[in-house]
Amino acid sequence: MTEDDRTEPLVLGPVRPSDGQDDTDRATPAWQRWGGLGAALVVGAVVGIVANNARNDAAEYGEVDLVRGTIDVEYGSPLSSNAQRLYVNLVNSGPREVEILAIDVDGFTTVTGDEGGDTVTAEPGEWVRVETNVEADCDTRPPGTLQVHVRTGSGEQNVVVAGQPGDDQLIWAWQGGCDSSAGTGVFIGDTRTIEADASGARIMLPVTNGAQEPLTVTAMETTTPGFAMQTDPLPVDVEAGGTVQVETLWTVTDCEAAARFSEATVAVNIHNESMDTRVSQPLDNPTLIELVRLAVRVCET
């Protein structure tokens, strides 16, 4: 070979693996395989987190925490002789609004009628008063528990609400419905206004004992927002089936509350041979009108 020949570049043919395999037949690099697996894991984790959050949100929206307070009992017209109207006080201790559709009280059968049946919305931390008409189930002494049918952001459900110690009102209502076919309890009949001016309204309340045993009215007070009520000296005895007239003096104590009230009610504390109890009684429309007039005289002058 001459010196001129060595100046020519050396040209090599294609370089291939010694085993004769093409590049296309070679295995995928490990980093590519692990990279694909990692991407799949990331996608799966994201989907799992979203699904888990959705489940948690649904559970949170469906969370209901109701606590039962007192239960007030109403007897007499327009209820049938064996029926009572119960006013159940509940507080929403949960984090979200709850719509209360209906209440069943263990130990009683719910009576469907023209009155009541309206849903009640309870905001978080708010006390509400729910009405239900019932008849005593004399085979089941009431344990105090409620079956509350509610609606939340996740739909409708039934919630069991535990009772409270010393459920005298509930037991008394149950005993009254079972021990006497003629019904029992204290109720206030048609009221009568004696006189009224800006200083107050004197209203006579007829208190009737619908039980078959005598009882004593030990105290009476208004539960009507914005008003105070004084009574004749108490206690007073009421014979079985008898009526006593209790003179009351109503005055306005809070104009703002008196401007918003929609029902006049009185709480009556009674004593008989078996127990002491407290009954909430609504007053008739003439009393409601008289109190509205009193609020206008006091607060708009």
Architecture overview:
The protein has two domains: 66-176, Immunoglobulin-like, CATH 2.60.40; 186-299, Gamma-adaptin ear (GAE) domain (Immunoglobulin-like, Sandwich). Helices cover 22% and strands 39% of the residues. It has helices spanning 3-6, 30-61, 168-179, 255-258, 285-299; strands at 66-74, 83-92, 98-105, 108-110, 120-122, 127-136, 146-152, 155-161, 186-188, 192-197, 200-209, 215-222, 227-231, 236-238, 243-252, 265-271, 276-282. Strand 16 and strand 17 form a beta hairpin. The chain is flat. The termini are far apart. Residues 1-28 are annotated as: Disordered.
Secondary-structure topology with pairs:
Layout: H1 3-6, H2 30-61, E1 66-74, E2 83-92, E3 98-105, E4 108-110, E5 120-122, E6 127-136, E7 146-152, E8 155-161, H3 168-179, E9 186-188, E10 192-197, E11 200-209, E12 215-222, E13 227-231, E14 236-238, E15 243-252, H4 255-258, E16 265-271, E17 276-282, H5 285-299
Antiparallel strand pairs: 1-2, 2-6, 3-5, 3-7, 4-6, 7-8, 9-11, 10-11, 11-15, 12-14, 12-16, 13-15, 16-17
